[in-house]
Write a structure and sequence with these properties.
The complex is a heterodimer of chains A (94) and B (535). By secondary structure, chain A is α/β, with parallel strands linked by helices. Chain A is 27% helix and 22% strand. Chain B is of the alpha+beta class and 535 residues long. The two termini of chain B are 32 Å apart. Classes of the chains: A alpha/beta (94), B alpha+beta (535).
Chain lengths: 94, 535
């Protein structure tokens, strides 16, 4: 029996390997808190924001929210966060 | 022989070897006589002495080649006929295919640049006499001694091996200009092809049909669309999927070519922003597309809308849904444990497709109620997280009672206190349909009754010690809800439009089933219906 040839059912794309951005030694600048819009995600993020204010008052906090948790974040939102923040914390809750 | 027989056309160049591995390139710069033959063909056997004779007579000026269609047969021809002319090996049939042969022997006389001077197939004494006369004139050499009376006037040729059904498909798949562009994967002869496909993570956990080029090509015969047309961008990896890639996965799922237009349209519908297959796949709730097919294509491809419509045993029902899941998995990259993250999931993740029994119902079929023509063929995708959940009612004899039963059970779907962005797919069985319509009810009457019965006063919907699910009391402030608020009826569904109703199932049995939806509306998944344009 000879070899069988089949057609590749996948998208044939090689995933791009990216270097992780080096982690900074210190937390400074702006931290984005991204609410994915699951119920009570805001509760978790409110608490985080309060802890930041208490322990790292020099850090600026900006709040963001996805329009819905069921879809990936829109491009504009991702760009906005990348431009405005050095860090981002994405919160999942229920 | 269609494209190559016109005198004056330039024959396709080729390179073939004889049994010793010596390469022969056409055109040669000299006149050439190409004689395609096959060992099992009696007319070829009849012609070979003439072919050999022309080689001996004109070989000094003309390249006379036999081109045999299978290696062992070629050796037998050389031996059996004492051939001294070159016997080129076209066992792969690539040249026979390129020359569009349907009959052997096929004889082509060409000039030094490859331009066709004369051709014929089968055996004709006059054809051969004319050919020899041409060769005499081209070569200025004397013709061979041939006792023409020993030859019959004519004999039909035999089928070229290149048009035998399985072979023709392989050749088409491999030929230049083939519609197939996807990467080929070679499975070693020592490997089990099914085990290989499992090992590569290309199946849904059940065996798949190996997508050989021949099968994919046959599948592509089910559509007029260009094989390289991008059908959709498939989440979660946002990978473009071509008609060819859908066809490959449809082969794997077990589809027949005539199902392909349904699969293609379903992939388009699934990948819309409205349906939001990314969220449907990723949710821990275990959502999956439930697909309903309406319109003439249901019957044309033999879908089941009757007995056991939601179950096993019908090929299009089983394989169309499976095909879109395989596209999602293999092209979109939605793999269990990756972006596919259901807590429990459901067997419906393998496949969930059925047809509406439109002919059984006096009401408009689903697609007509949603803006399509009755003669349109339409696929509808509903993101189902649960079901089929059966509603057993064998005793209600009026539409009002039966509608009440449906409302009571439907109220408990997901959770009795779940309200608001709910959607439901109701598959109404024929006996229940009869009970409803006997009282003259319309579909809307039934939906209204379901909505009426599944509504509850606020007081029954408050979260309490029995269950934490419900409307939190805290929402009403320190004084709590007023008596008026407590008595207010809260519907299960935001609108009766959120109850999607189709008719299916056997004539016997009073068992309607429902599928519960997922997060509905623009923030979740919306029901998407799309016309199959190509039917």
């Amino acid at each position: 029996m000879g070899a069988t040839r089949i057609m590749d059912p996948t998208d044939e794309r090689e995933p791009i390997r990216r270097q992780r951005t080096p982690r900074p030694e210190q937390l400074t600048g702006t931290v984005g808190l991204l609410d994915i819009s699951k119920p009570r995600g805001n509760v978790l993020l409110d608490r985080l924001e309060a802890l930041f204010a208490e322990r790292l008052p020099e850090v600026e906090i900006r709040r963001y929210a996805k329009p819905t948790f069921t879809k990936p974040a829109p491009d504009d939102l991702r760009r906005e966060i990348a431009e405005e923040c050095g860090f981002v914390i994405e919160a999942l809750a229920d | 022989m269609t494209t190559q027989t016109e005198v004056g056309t330039t024959l396709k160049p080729f390179v073939l070897s004889d049994s010793t591995g010596t390469e022969f390139r056409f055109p040669t710069g000299r006149p050439a006589l190409l004689c395609f033959v096959h060992e099992e063909c009696q007319t070829c056997a009849l012609s070979l002495p003439l072919i050999e004779a022309t080689h001996r007579a004109f070989g000094a000026a003309v390249d006379v080649w036999a081109i045999g269609q299978d290696t062992p047969g070629n050796a037998m021809l050389i031996e059996g006929h004492g051939l001294t002319l070159p016997m080129l090996d076209d066992d792969a049939l690539a040249v026979s295919f390129a020359y569009d042969l349907d009959t052997v022997p096929a004889i082509f006389l060409a000039d030094g640049s490859g331009k066709l001077l004369r051709s014929f197939v089968g055996f004709g004494r006059v054809d051969w006499q004319d050919l020899v006369a041409d060769l005499v004139s081209i070569s200025s050499l004397p013709g061979p001694e041939i006792r023409w009376d020993d030859f019959p006037e004519s004999r039909p040729g035999c089928g070229s091996r290149s048009v035998e059904p399985m072979i023709a498909e392989r050749l088409l798949a491999e030929a230049e200009g083939s519609p197939l562009r996807a990467r080929r994967i070679e499975i070693g002869s020592g490997d089990d092809e099914h085990e290989f496909l499992f090992d590569q993570g290309l199946t849904d956990g059940l065996p798949v049909v190996p997508p050989t080029p021949e099968r994919v090509l046959r599948m592509l015969g089910g559509t007029r669309r260009d094989s390289q047309e991008v059908v959709a961008i498939v989440p979660p990896n946002l990978a473009p999927v071509t008609v060819e890639k859908v066809a490959i996965n449809a082969v794997m799922a077990g589809c027949r070519p005539e199902y392909l237009p349904v699969v293609l349209t379903a992939v388009e519908a699934m990948c819309t922003d409205e349906f939001n297959i990314h969220g449907v796949s990723a949710t821990t709730m275990g959502a999956t597309p439930a697909m309903i097919v309406n319109g003439p294509i249901r019957n044309r491809i033999g879908m089941n809308s009757g007995l056991g419509a939601l179950g096993a045993g019908n090929r299009p029902n089983a394989t169309i849904g499976r095909a879109i899941r395989l596209v999602l998995r293999n092209v979109g990259g939605a793999k269990t444990g990756g972006t596919e993250r259901s807590t429990l999931a459901s067997p419906a993740k393998f496949t969930l497709t059925f047809a509406e029994w439109e002919e059984r119902s006096p009401w408009n079929p689903y697609h007509v109620d949603h803006g399509f023509q009755r003669e349109d063929s339409v696929v509808t995708l509903f993101a189902a997280t649960g079901g089929p959940s059966m509603i057993v009612d064998q005793t209600s004899r009026t539409a009002r009672q039966l509608g009440g039963s449906l409302g009571m059970v439907i109220e408990a779907i997901a959770h009795p206190r779940a309200r608001g962005p709910q959607e439901m797919l109701v598959v109404l069985c024929p006996e229940h349909l009869d009970t409803i319509t006997r009282d003259g009810w319309t579909k809307q009457d039934l939906l209204d009754r379901i909505q009426e019965v599944s509504a509850k006063p606020l007081r029954d919907l408050l979260a309490d010690e029995t269950s934490g699910v419900g409307i939190p009391l805290a929402r009403f402030g320190p004084d709590g809800p007023t008596e008026e608020q407590l008595s207010q009826m809260v519907p299960k569904f935001a609108s009766t439009d959120n109850i999607h109703l189709v008719v299916a199932g056997s004539d016997a049995g009073k068992f309607t089933s429902v599928f519960q939806g997922w997060a509905s509306g623009p923030r979740g998944s919306m029901v998407v219906s799309r016309k199959i344009e190509e039917v």
